[in-house]
Amino acid sequence: MKLNLTVSPDFSPDHISGWFIFNTWLQRQLDRPVHLELYDSFEAQRKDIQDGKYDLVYANPFDASMLVRELGFKAIVRPISKSDETVIATHVDTQYNCVEDLQPNSRLVATSDPDVTRIGMIMLEPADLDGSNTALSTVDTYVIVAKRLINNEADAGFFLKDAYDDLSELIRKQMKVLVASEISDVHHALLVSPELEALIPQFQDFLVSMQNDPKGQGVLQSMDLEGWEIMTEEQTEFMIDLIDTLID
């Protein structure tokens, strides 16, 4: 039986090949075909996930909450030392040097990654800014967020920190960071559908062992990951509760 895998669209384009390498490695471990589908749009991917098209999902925290609570998926592993932090940035030449410098009616830009957007809005609270006195535009990718800032089409943008760090040096030189979150308990996770629950111990065994195998190390490096660690049900519930609190 073929399995279908998809990956949250917030990873750097530089790591596209890494995920295809991982997919090939995964097929060898499972001795069955696995099809990898990548998306440019969070919303398009979310719809296909909700339509039951995927058995395995490397999900951002918001989608992990939906997968567990609505679709019965299980989070099995998370990347080692890779929490999901949010960065608020602006054009390098603006007069803004901290979030408190931002003014009412500021033009904000973000992707449709809800946890990043919500955390970003929380970090604007010291400037007395919220949805009632700012204008938020939503775009498909973090590269477009950066372009909006560089072209002075927005005053501040919200980024997943990993996505910001993965932008080219040329792009990052044209921006400056106003603030970065330090939550640490929010992170991506690899989840499996209810139909694969019996295979969870097998999945966890070969994924956690990847970093100890030379070939596995090469695959991880291509994905910009150090390795995987088991994610317990308690850790999953804690993260989902935290995300639900932030989104509400």
Write a short abstract of this structure:
The chain is α/β, with parallel strands linked by helices.
Describe this structure in words.
This protein has helices at about 15-30, 40-50, 60-70, 115-125, 140-150, 160-165, 170, 200-210, 215-220, 235-245; strands at about 5, 35, 55-60, 75-80, 85-90, 105-110, 135-140, 155-160, 175-180, 190, 230. With about 250 residues, it is α/β, with parallel strands linked by helices. The strands form 2 sheets. The protein has a 6-stranded mixed sheet with strand order 2-1-3-10-4-11, sandwiched between helices. Strands 7-6-8-5-9 form a 5-stranded mixed sheet. The radius of gyration is 19 Å and the shape is globular. The longest helix is centred in the first third of the chain and has 15 residues, at about 15-30. It folds into 2 domains: about 5-85 and about 185-245, D-Maltodextrin-Binding Protein, domain 2 (3-Layer(aba) Sandwich), CATH 3.40.190; about 85-180, D-Maltodextrin-Binding Protein, domain 2 (3-Layer(aba) Sandwich), CATH 3.40.190.10. Helices cover about 40% and strands about 20% of the residues. Strand 1, helix 1 and strand 2 (about 35) form a beta-alpha-beta unit. It has 10 helices and 11 strands. Helix 1 packs antiparallel against helix 9 (about 215-220) and helix 3 (about 60-70) crosses helix 10 (about 235-245).
